[in-house]
Amino acid sequence: MFKLILVSALFALAAARPKIRTELPQLDGRIVGGFDAFIEQLPYQVSLLVLDSHMCGGSIIRPDLVLTAAHCTSKYQPSEMSVRYGSSIRDQAGTVVPVLYKKDHYEYDPSSMDYDISVLVLVDQIIMSASAQVIPLASSYSEGGRVGLVSGWGALSTGGPSPSQLKAVYVREVDRKKCNDDYEGAITERMICFMDTGKDACQGDSGGPLVSSNGELIGIVSWGMACADPSHPGIYSNVVVLRSFIGW
Fold first, then answer.
1. CA nearest to 33, candidates 172, 206, 170, 207
2. pTM of the model
3. Is 116 a catalytic site residue?
4. Who's near 55: CB < 8 A, 6+ residues apart?
5. 156 versus 123: which is more confidently predicted?
6. Least confident segment among 96-100, 136-140, 227-231
7. Which of 104, 114, 116, 200 is labelled catalytic?
8. What angle do CA 248, 85, 241 make, to 5 degrees?
9. Low-confidence winner among 93-97, 142-146, 173-177, 184-188 (lowest mean pLDDT)
């Protein structure tokens, strides 16, 4: 079972501020306003590769399963995708495992970004170590007032460069009604909203993990309006609501 010590320590050490994400029809997200992180601190984090280059993030939920966003996978065949685990550096080091099969949510809608979730089955099992661990899925929650840790190799600003070093940032939950008003009614039950001033996920972070202070996976980086836009929170797929689809 994945140990929560490192994630809990990160929550204790950092001052939480968070911000939000990128445009709805976008393929990726990024970390804006974050800090350098190392894979031993976030060993559940993986890089989803398309044609051997980083495209999105993902989370190890079983030695042979990775959870990511459907908007990262829907346009590609399993043979075009692989997963790099055990590395803090984008497109370098770690271990690369091909994808055997993908299960995009059958109700995923790219126009609304609803049901934005995909499960990837790997050809070989991930070898567990200090830099590769399973993260538990949240099974219940009390909505409102949560702080989450989001991580990835995405751009550092809208349209800006992407770092080679893994980044992470803390974001705070936004009231569902306010978030829905900000997005003119586009927020569904399958979505949760997090943000903080000058902090967000962006291009390249999509599909990556949003982790609660108790070390459970609560969200998947999905979409948003620009990166770190103060009037538009970042939108994440709601793991608790979508857990029956995950089947784990």
1. 170
2. 0.85
3. yes
4. 27, 28, 48, 49, 72, 204
5. 123
6. 227-231
7. 116
8. 30
9. 142-146
Q: Which of 206, 212, 222, 237 does the annotation list as catalytic? A: 206
Q: Give start and end residues of each alpha helix (H) in 112-230.
A: 176-182
Digit-coded pLDDT (tens) for 116-151: 999 999 999 999 999 999 999 998 878 888 999 999
Cα–Cα distance list, 144 to 8, 139, 172, 177, 192 (Å): 19, 16, 9, 11, 10
Annotated active-site residue in 54, 71, 105, 232: 71
DSSP for 83-142 reads EEES-SBTTSSSEEEEEEEEEE-TT-BTTTTBT--EEEEESSPPPPBTTB---PBP----
Residue 69, classed as helix, strand or coil, is coil
**Residue at 29: amino acid letter:** G
Selection from 172, 147, 141, 171 nearest residue 240 by Cα: 141
Predicted local distance difference test score (pLDDT) of residue 142 = 81
The two structure tokens encoding residue 44: 């559940």
Task: Name 89's Cβ contacts closer than 8 Å, sequence gap at least 6.
Answer: 164, 165, 166
Contact indicator for 238, 189 with CB cutoff of 8 Å: yes
